[in-house]
Amino acid sequence: MTAARARPTDCPTGKRRYRDRIGAKYALAVLKESASWRRQETRAYHCRACNGWHLTSKP
Questions:
Q1: What is the DSSP letter of 10?
Q2: Which of 5, 17, 41, 44 supports an S-S bond with 52, CB 3.0-4.6 Å?
Q3: pLDDT tens, 41-58?
Q4: How far apart are the C-alpha atoms of 29 and 9, rounded to whole Å?
């Protein structure tokens, strides 16, 4: 699914950018299913800087 692909350089914050909420949610689901999931991302949020979506561990 191409919607979940992150583009690390498309945001001035340097964070991984997802094109839409669906892609970010899909990436979050894939991360949670991964055995090597070390980070604790819990939700997706909209970024005003790049008009994309990011994942965060903050509630």
A1: S
A2: 17
A3: 889 999 999 999 999 988
A4: 22
